[in-house]
Amino acid sequence: MPILKRDARHEVTCTLNGETVTGYAEPRLLLSDFLRHEIGATGTHVGCEHGICGACTVLVDGVAVRSCLMLAVQARGRNIETVEGLSGPDETLSPLQAAFHRNFALQCGFCTPGFLTSLTEVLERNPDPSEAEIREALSGNLCRCTGYQEIVDAALGAAAEMRGAS
Amino acid sequence: MKPAAFDFMMPETVAEAADALAEYGDDARIMSGGQSLMPILNMRLSRPELVIDISRIESLDAIRLKDGVIEIGAGATQAALLRWPELNAASPLLAAALPHIGHFQTRNRGTVCGSLCHADPSSELPLCLAVLGGDVILKNARRERIVAAGEFQTGMLTTAKAADEIVVGARYPVAQPGAGYAFDEITRRHGDFAIVALAAVARGSNIRLGVGGVADHPAIRDWDGIDGDDLDDALNAFAWELGGNDDIHATARYRREMVRTLGRRVIENARAACRS
Fold first, then answer.
1. What is the tens place of the pLDDT at every residue in B70-89?
2. Torsion-angle region of residue B180: left (phi > 0), alpha (psi -120 to 50) or beta?
C-alpha cells in the first residue's frame, strides 16, 4: 500500500448503518470527526477524545470501539454501525432504546449513543447478563447526569424483553 | 485534541513495515490497535512523521500454542486472547489478569503486544510476561531477535526496542503442572490504571511475586520456603526496595502498604490454587 500523504484528503469508503458511504479524510482525521463532519452523521458524540468517556463508541464489524481512538482511513472497507442505525427505518425505537426511554435512563442524552452502542454488543454476546456483568460492561461509559441505576435497569429490562421476544 | 499531521501507511507484510521503519526510524511510529498511541497522538505528546498501521498484516494476527509457550502475534487483540478457547488451561494467570485491562471496548482494539510496547509501569500484560518469564520477538529489515521480558521493559514507557524494530510477537510460557497462579490489582474504578497490580506464582515451597505500579517497571522477587511473619518481613523489605512515588491517585506509602497486604493475599491465593 502506498503512503497516504498528510496534506492530501484520501478517499474513505465504508458501510455506515447498512449503506455504502464515501468521504475524504487526511490521515490524521479521527473516525469520530469523519462521521460527524464529513458524513454528517452527528448521532455519535465526542467527549474526551482519549478513550475514557465512551460517548463516541460505535460498532466496527460488530464490536464496540472508541471512534476517537481510530482514524478514518482505518475504517476503509469496514462495517460501521452508529446510534442512527439502531432504530427501525420508520424510526421505531429498538427494544434497547425503548427501555432507556421507559426507565428514564437519560437526561441530557450526551453519553447515550455510547451506552446504546456498547450495550448492543454486550446483549448480543450475553442475552442474559447479571446486574454485576452489566455494571462491569458499562464501566467504560461515563454519564455525568442521569446516574447509572436507571441505565442498568434499562439494560436488564431490554435484555429480558429481547429474550422474551426471541 | 486532534493529532498533528502525519503520513500514514497500512502495509500487508512485516517486510514492508520494516522497510518503512528502516527509512524513517525514530520519525515513524507503529500502531496496531491504537489504544495507547491514539490518545498520545490526540494529546500531541508524540508527533510522528509516519504512522505505520500493522493491524492488517495477516501473519501477525495469531494466537497459538507452540513448544510450551503461547505465541501471540502483534495483531492479536486483548479481546481475542480473552476469548481464545485454550486460555484458561494454558494460562490461568492471563485469564485472571485480562478482564482488568481497560474496558471491553478498548480490549476490542487494544493488542497484547501494543501494551508491552507502551510499557506503562502499572500495565497487566508486561507484569504477567515478567512473572512468567516470557519474551518478545523483534524484527527489523535484516534480522530477528528475542528479548527476555526483564530486558525488554527498561523503565517507565521505555523498552529495548530499537527505532528500526517491530515487535512481531510475544511468548508467554504456559502454566506449569502443579503450580498455582493468582492476580489482583487495586484501582479507583474497574478498568482504570492499576494503582498497584500483583501477580503471584506458587510451586511447592517456591513463591514468585511480581509487582506493577510501584517501581518504574514490573518488579519480580523469588522466595523459597518462607511463611508466616518471615513472609511479611520479606514483603515489607521488598516494598521499601521498590519505593514508589506519590501521585494524584495514591501516596508512595499506600503503594507500599498494598505490596504488603494485597501481595500477601495474592500469594495465599496462588498457594490455594496450587493445592487445588
1. 999 999 999 999 999 999 99
2. beta
Q: Distance, in angstroms, between A59 CA and closest chain B CA?
A: 9
Q: What value does the mean pLDDT of chain B take?
A: 96
In this prediction, residue A17 carries a pLDDT of 97
CA distance A50 to chain B (A): 5
State the amino acid at position B192 in one-letter form: D
pLDDT tens across A16-33, in order? 999 999 999 999 999 999
Which DSSP helix (H) or strand (E) runs through B269? helix B252-275
Of residues A34, A50, A30, the one with CA closest to residue A42:
A34
Which ipTM was obtained for this model?
0.96
B39 touches chain A (CB under 8 A): yes
Helix axes A95-102, A112-125, angle to 10 degrees: 130
Chain A residues whose beta carbon lies within 8 Å of the beta carbon of residue B98: none
Contacts of A7 in chain B (CB under 8 A): 5
pLDDT tens figures, A29-40: 999 999 999 999
pLDDT in tens, B247-276: 999 999 999 999 999 999 999 999 999 987
Residue B159 φ then ψ, to 5°: -135, 175
| C-beta neighbour count of A151 within 10 angstroms | 25
C-alpha dist (Å) from residue A46 to A39, A83, A149, B102, B154: 15, 13, 23, 19, 36
The pairing of beta strand B50-53 with beta strand B7-9: parallel
